[in-house]
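Re-run requested by the PI after the first attempt was lost when the workstation crashed. Everything re-entered from the original request form. Ligand of interest: magnesium ion.
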Amino acid sequence: MPETPVATATDQHTAHGPDRPMVEIAGLCKTFGEHRVLRGIDLTVAPGQVACILGPSGSGKSTLLRCVNQLETATDGAIHIDGELVGYRVQGGRRHPLSPRQIARQRRSTAMVFQRFNLLAHQSALANVMEAPVHVHGVPRDRAREEGLALLDRVGLGPYADHYPAQLSGGQQQRVAIARALAVRPRVLLFDEPTSALDPELVDEVLAVMTDLAREGLTMLVVTHEIAFARDVADTVFFMDGGVVVESGDPAQVLNAPSHERTRAFLRRVL
Amino acid sequence: MSAAASRTGTPAGTDSRPSGLEPMAPRVRWQEFLYLAIVLVLLAMLANFVLTNERLNLPVFWEYLFHPLVLDGLRITVILTVAGMVGGTVLGLALTAMRLSSSPTLRAVSFTAIYVSRTIPLLVQLLFWFFLASVLPRISFGIPFGPEFVSFETNEVINQLGAAIIALSLFVAGYMAEIMRSGVMSVDRGQVEAATAMGMTPLSVFRRVVFPQAARISIPPTMNQVISVLKYSSVVILIGLADLMYSVQAIYSRNFQQIPLLLVATFWYGLVVVVLTVVQSQLEKRLSTGLPKAARQRMKELEEKTDA
Ligand SMILES: Nc1ncnc2c1ncn2[C@@H]1O[C@H](COP(=O)(O)OP(=O)(O)OP(=O)(O)O)[C@@H](O)[C@H]1O
Ligand SMILES: [Mg+2]
């Protein structure tokens, strides 16, 4: 486990080669009006690693993920995904915001799994999984269908390909959402509390799928309240509070022997 | 699937009731007979009035039902309804796009246009466009405050039919804009975000996610609007355009058979509404994929298939 490198907010990003981080967030700030939700976040995820973000409600975890895939525009700081600066083009020593079209193109390197699943209600499970390959990446229908069915099989939902979201349980919907996220072969998978909207007995089926993905070497950035999952699966744990990363490092260290009082207080409440 | 199996496992009629309780007595609703009796008596009275009333003069109804004047009028009424709805929907779509855009100028323009469209009475709009020539004798296209390219006599471009179609379109536009806006706003934000996060362009998100779901929500109010326009179009009688109402009135002003001829008009308006209602239910069926009700229906079909 390498030391978490402290990245500097810099436009002339030069990290290249095999050690280049997959996700590199530096000095990230986000304000909503007067409200400073993110106050300088530094966070790095190496390729193939799983990072879990923990923290109390309102600490800015969702906002952080939404900045990574540009559902929100950060106020300050920089995000690089696989070495590419997110949201801007650097020219003449200045940053120029990308057009909506270019942003859409950039979003293809990530995929997101939402707390409330957000499957397209007017499409079957299979059509949901095929949507991005066919309509964003231009994959031929036949191939997308084949791959979509394989992905549904992989999350244990092969027989449910024709079901609409309204006909699936929460756990099944979330597994379809994970298959949908995998369908575009993202470089980074983002999860925003994927199990918090689920009944307790459905949580495990979703966590099992996520654990498999982690074993297969996908790069994952996971916001979760499932401490056991973080302990068993994460390579790094980040603990956020009040818009900053209070503490980060090896899960065993952060979760078993936290060095900050705020982390200790949070863990006492959730364990 | 196991639920379906256990249901078919206990066929009706056997007395293997798992609960062991007495069977339900059939429920008889005596009031139902009373309601039915009252309705039948009223219908009999109506039939008696229609069939035995010499003054109602039913043969006149049949004589004029397919009269060329009446059918010509019906044609104009249908043209007005279709043209008014198409024009109003296109304008309404533009107003909705402006209203939901991020530009404050466009939003203000749209807000004002919707206000104007819904505020001025249809009759006033109709007469305004019909008499436009009195204040604007020529219509010209060119560079504002600069040279003109083409120009027309206002009366040549805006005849009776033109004035009626313009008035109906502008009248409909404000309502359609609001119908479509509420349809768009009813689409789940989460689905829009999911599609955006996939890397769809804003236009694709609209085409693939927002439009199909907003369209489904907008069908019933849009059909209301079509039916309103069908009936409101009869105001064109005031500028002498020969629609269904105009023709019927022209006939009864000569033969004084008002009621039979009003029944002729009622018949045709009613027939058009019946056709529209059938179209509406077909459209709704087609666009309801994935909605909870359709989902349940589809679930039933799947279960029946696995049972068989
Ligand atoms: N679009 C927005 N406009 C204004 N304030 C917002 C917006 N989105 C989030 N916030 C605020 O930012 C803060 C952080 O929100 P965020 O959703 O990132 O928290 P979170 O850590 O994900 O919390 P939770 O665990 O409850 O999901 C909250 O105080 C919230 O009210
Ligand atoms: Mg959140």
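Saved to the shared folder this time. Residues A 61-62, 192-193 surround magnesium ion (ligand 2) (CB under 6 Å).
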